[in-house]
Amino acid sequence: MKKILCFLILIGFFTDVFSQTQLLDSLQGIISKNQQDTLHIKALLNLGINLERSDLKRSTENYWAVLNMKEEPAFQKFKASAAIRLAGNYSATGRLDSVDFYFEKAEKLINANLNDQKMAYALYNGRGIHLNRIGKFEAALSAYNKAIALDHQVIGLDNVAGLYINLSNVYKQMDDQKSNFEASYKALEIFEKTQNKTGLAFVYNSLGTAHYHIKNYDESEKYFLKSLDFRQLLGDKRGESMVLGNLGNIFMDTEQHQKAKEYFTSALEMQEELGLKEMVGIQLYNLGRNYIGMEEYQLALEHFQRARKVLKEAGVSTYDAKVLADLGKVQRILSQESEAYQSLKLATQTATHQKQYSEAVTAFKNLKEYYQSQGKFQEALEAQSKEYAYRDSIGIGTLQTQLKELESKYALDLKENEISLLIAEKELDKLELAKRKANQNLIIAVFFFLILLAGILVNKYRVVGRTKRLLEVEKLRNSIARDLHDDLGSTLSSIHILSQMALHKEDAANKVLFSKINSQTANMMDKLSDIVWSIHPNNDNLEQLLSKMQEFAAEILEPKGITYQFEVAEGAEYVKLDLEKRRNLFLIFKEALNNTAKYAESKHLEIKLSIEGNMLGLLIKDDGKGFDPQQIKKGNGLFNMQQRASMMGGSMTIESLPQKGTSIQLSAPIT
After folding, report:
1. Where would you find the membrane-spanning parts of this chain (predicted)?
2. N or C: which end of the chain has fewer CB within 10 A?
3. How many Å is the maximal CA-CA distance in the chain?
4. Whole-model pTM over 0.85
């Protein structure tokens, strides 16, 4: 069955590619005859439209050819379409001086035929795309709403769906994510009915972007990959490059920086080849952000500066706040203090003025970090207050709830359609069976088939139910981790900043007290970080725990001059521990290393993690001064380690002799 399905998919793919090639060849054949008639001008226009997504230069040349044909009344609507399309090409390549000229030319041609709603739609839609691109969002919405107000039957359902996609792009830029999702699902509903591949490519990209904005990375990647399949099928290089950049953003946010770099670079090369200045500027900015994650700050600085230059040449201002915020961050890291301050202040002003709340969060966060590095704690506190105020205004949690409602509604609509179809099919089956009562074998076969199908469906619903419950638990853990980080983390951060402010004052009497507050707050922030890390579902596998253990060992032992050997059993990184065992294992390890660093006076530490059957073993052995367990008073540290071993369902042995070192051996079941 799978082989047959793959064969059918391959047939569909090659059929679409062949059809597209055949269409282009057919149009080129008509043009080569140079009849200078209606068929000739229509072929020129359609060839230009089909080349827009793969060869902008040839597309533009075709539109010029349309406009240069002789003046005849029958040619006016084709020339108006060519002028609108030409304005769109110039908008995409950053030649803004030509955009208004060709839109005005199109409007003059359309005014001669005011009743042509299709031409009015093309003009409003084209202007909306351009206005959104240059950051004039209210004007873009106005243009799209004029287009939607036209007769849907006249302009066509696919074009109506296209307008909803364009509206979703504007809402995304305005941080109105609820309207963004609603418009995207309206477009999807239409394109699912018409099975328009180009439309589905756009709407899947739009939904991927919407999910990415609220950090639903798995859903986002799913939609982007669907869009990419259609883009490659249709030979849409422009759209393909855009989706590659979007996938790069997901890999960057999930810290797969090398993979993100490859996707951004591929997108950039395609967009430079097509001459798409705005998209080139965006990819340069994305590469700059990715270089920050790779800690290659000079390269990040160079890419941000290039991005600003290219976007300015393209006349695009919607990315100003983003680029400036990250540019200021890198300048601060590279000790370019004056430049950093100017960039960050301008970023906050731009984001606030343009009502780009997501960008405002990043800008004020980076400005806060700048003030902290300069010891300006009062200003840092004010910047942090604005950061959290804008973060609250975005309301990602509310958006996720609204998205779930929209998805449920969409799924319900599809289900109702399916039920209607099933009812109709059932009626037809009854008529058919009435005519063929004699065919008992067929009835029996259908009966057994339905039983088998019912069994499959019941099993499927059970699997889906279990999966949904697991997803709900994972979402809850994500929510707890986020709330701890955002709410409690921000409060501790504020206390930490205030205590630093107090320490800088001359009142010596209070310095000891504030020093204790500062120390205790830092300790609490460290513990909170461990709790958030242990709760987050991305860290369920042992590989992530081992990485954190090695990082902690380096942080504690290396400043003390203690060498260490970290030995891990083969295949240990693939073992999964539940949240409680993972947390207890790390805290036992942490306590043991802290004791070694503080009291053991050792030169070398041996750490071994072993897996034998269903048992996990941890050995921590030092060559320090040791102690006599009978003479040392049992403190909270040793008691807590024993308690945590018991909570894991295992046991822990501590062996130590004076001047002979200490050995700690933990043994616990994996499941």
Report:
1. 442-459
2. N
3. 108
4. no
